[in-house]
Specification:
This protein is of the alpha+beta class. Strand 1 and strand 2 form a beta hairpin.
């Protein structure tokens, strides 16, 4: 089964965050975060996004600011998080 993986952006304060999303929107969501050497694309390349969608989950893989397609940003306060 080949699933449709959507590349999206969301603006949070001064950060433009990239994420990949797939699976039924009305199902349980799984948030995938990456480590320092990876990006949201890694979850697609190793098949995790597709596997979660095929088993009925909505999968969202986020590019943390400064990684993948999310640009590095300066954070003025900890309240951002």
């Amino acid at each position: 089964m080949n699933t449709n993986i959507n590349s999206q952006y969301i603006n949070l304060e001064n950060a433009r965050i990239h994420y990949l999303e797939t699976g039924p929107t009305n199902s349980v969501s799984v948030l995938l975060l990456h480590g320092a050497s990876f990006s949201a694309q890694t979850w697609q390349e190793i098949g995790t996004l597709e596997l979660l969608a095929m088993t009925g989950y909505r999968a969202v893989a986020v590019d943390i600011p400064g990684y993948g397609r999310s640009k590095r940003t300066s954070v003025s306060s900890l309240s951002f998080y």
